[in-house]
Amino acid sequence: MKTTIDIPDELLADAMKFTGAKTKRDAVVKAIESFNRLQLVKEVVANFGTLDFATNEEIEAGDMEELSCRTKKKPKLAHK
């Protein structure tokens, strides 16, 4: 999307220096990507520990059930 905005020269120069960008556009894109990534990390940290994970025993029981299903012999099909 093409947008015209007025960015203070000092801020843009710092963004170019810190991101290693060679163009103003690249500096702005990298800065936005960095900001978005930081916000996602903040969300993950805020939600850490709120997910309901299975216990080790439940995981092992599920593994055993899956193994049991895989090892059962499948019926042979009759040839015509």
The fraction of residues assigned to DSSP E strands is under 5%
Individual helix count: 3
Instruction: List the uncertain runs.
Output: none
- N-to-C span: 64 Å
What's the SSE pattern? Answer: HHH
Keywords:
single chain; 80 residues; mainly alpha; 64% helix
Description:
This protein is mainly alpha-helical. The protein has one domain. Helices cover 64% and strands 0% of the residues. The protein is built from three helices and no strands. The chain has helices spanning 9-19, 24-47, 56-71. It is elongated. The model has no long low-confidence stretch (mean pLDDT 85).
Give the topology, please.
Blueprint: H1 9-19, H2 24-47, H3 56-71
Helix pairs in contact: 1-2
